[in-house]
Amino acid sequence: MNRILLVEDNEANRDMLGRRLVRRGFDVSVAIDGASALVQARESKPDLILMDIGLGEDMDGWEATRRLKADADTSSIPVIALTAHALSTDLEKSIAAGCADFDTKPVDLPRLLAKIERCLQADANGSA
């Protein structure tokens, strides 16, 4: 069973997406901000991280991703950025921060699941 760390500060979004992923067979843990995401990623070593870009003022998702990618213990974990903004600059910033992929909210679950599977497959093949 693949483990996903869902980093989302909005409780309703976190609950809805978390439940949908669990129903699809994923083991889901959650973090509500960037700082707790860094700790949980180091401790639990998830197979993939879904990172809300619009986290609180202390640390946005891009900064959390940069820190994850700079840490040897978490640098290989693929990160998919999630955002309510579909701007090309958000995609560019996400890729520059180290995200493997990017998706918009509200989440289109089949599209997100396809991206998750691609990232997990690439990681399993050593090309993430």
> What is the total number of structural domains?
1
| Low-pLDDT segments | none
C-alpha Rg (nearest Å) = 13 Å
- Order of adjacent strands in the largest pleated sheet: 2-1-3-4-5
SS-derived structural category: alpha/beta
Average pLDDT score: 93
Q: Report the span from N to C terminus.
A: 19 Å
Question: What is the CATH homologous superfamily assignment?
Answer: Response regulator
- Report the top-level CATH class: Alpha Beta
CA-based shape: globular
Largest sheet: 5 strands, parallel
State the helical fraction.
40-55%
| Total E-strand runs | 5
- Second-tier CATH architecture: 3-Layer(aba) Sandwich
> In percent, how much strand structure appears in the residues?
15-25%
CATH topology description: Rossmann fold
How many helical stretches?
Answer: 5
Order of helices and strands: EHEHEHEHEH
Provide a brief overview of the structure.
The chain contains 5 helices and 5 strands, in the order E-H-E-H-E-H-E-H-E-H.
Secondary-structure topology with pairs:
Elements (H helix, E strand, L loop, with lengths): L2 E5 L3 H13 L3 E5 L2 H11 L3 E5 L8 H10 L8 E5 L4 H10 L3 E4 L4 H16 L4
Parallel strand pairs: 1-2, 1-3, 3-4, 4-5
